[in-house]
Amino acid sequence: MAKTVKNIFDEKVSLIYEYNKKSPLFVREANTEIFANNVEKAVEILRQGLRLFPNYPTAYIVLAKALTMLGEYDEALSSYKKGCKIINSDTSFAYFEKEVASTQKQRSAFGRITRRPLTFEQDFSDEIDSLGGDGANFQKLEKTFEDNLGELAERISAVKIPAPSDSIYKEEEEESDFPSEVKIASETLAKIYVAQGEFKEALAMYRRLIPKNPLKENYFLEKISELQVKYNLD
Asked: Which residues constitute the domain of residue 28?
């Protein structure tokens, strides 16, 4: 049976993640594991990734959903709370809190755990800002991602991923050698780079975002100027 564009996309993401465990794509890799019913492995991937990217709200949301699937409701609520705090949305947390309570009630009634695959949200925190942080609009967010998945998958599927090497690399070599083609331009990634102290990467990302989203050119130029002045960058 021929592979779909989404299958190719998932495989490429897995290869990228295998090559560089520090990639922000760890959330997408975790979601792939959830689709394969490997929820425990997904939780492990997400927790490892959050040690590197502690300000990544999408990761907390997906982790919370995975923990809910495992019946770890208290931990799920804690993860939801952290993610919603980052995006400053009490409304979203209230929505998720009701969702967890509803799931717990249903499982108590039927006495079983149903594992439902998740839908990954691209640029989650940025989209939430535009939706006003309303948890009830998350279905709209998921639909937006699905509509753009084909184009995104085709772009990533064309990337040639180098085979993993058995050699031991220094951390800085791993970061600099990672193929630039697979770094998808997004404001979320730019924010992650800033949070991790990778200011040159953040600067490059904001520059790439200008032609991608010309309506926000002034905003991106302000971010670029802030980084240049604060960290003495060119």
From this structure: 5-174
